[in-house]
Design goal:
The chain has 168 residues and is mainly α. The chain contains two helices and no strands. Helix 1 runs antiparallel to helix 2.
Length: 168
């Protein structure tokens, strides 16, 4: 009987140990499962954050691309405006040069007519050479004054045009 009781107690003890081990293993499995779930949640949260950051970056990249394109368009417009200003300036300059040449031709014609009239009148005079020399000196002085005036006017027009271009 004692032997039987010992054996039953031994079986109960083994059974209790097995149950304790089983409970410990189950508890360990439960803890491991919880940790695994926490890791999965953390990973999912990181993935969500990464996706959100990726979307933000895509939006920013698109915005920057549009800004670069807009900037390039503005630069191209500015270049075109500069080209137009330069072309307008050159056209005005050429027009100015033509006008100056025309004025010069007209003045030469007037001077030639005046010179012929004076020559004819000078021949009638007794002191022809003195008159001719005086006439030449007058013509040279008038020509010099006219040139200086034209040069001054031309410079003023070019300065005004340059100021207009600079203001635009």
């Amino acid at each position: 009987k004692q032997w039987y009781q010992r054996r039953v107690r031994e079986q109960w003890r083994i059974k209790a140990e097995v149950e304790a081990k089983t409970a410990e293993v189950l508890l360990q499995k439960e803890r491991t499962a919880k940790k695994f779930e926490e890791l999965l949640k953390a990973r999912e949260e990181r993935l969500i954050k990464l996706r959100a950051e990726e979307e933000e970056l895509a939006v920013l990249n698109e915005r920057m691309r549009k800004e670069r394109e807009d900037m390039e368009r503005r630069r191209e417009k500015q270049r075109q405006i500069e080209k137009e200003k330069i072309a307008a300036f050159q056209a005005a300059r050429e027009e100015n040069i033509k006008a100056n040449e025309q004025k010069l031709a007209e003045l030469r014609e007037k001077d030639a007519l005046t010179q012929k009239k004076r020559l004819v009148a000078g021949k009638k005079r007794v002191n022809y050479r003195a008159d001719l020399q005086a006439q030449k000196l007058e013509e040279q002085a008038a020509e010099q004054a006219r040139r200086e005036q034209e040069e001054k006017e031309r410079k003023e027009r070019l300065d005004k045009l340059a100021a207009t271009v600079a203001v635009e």
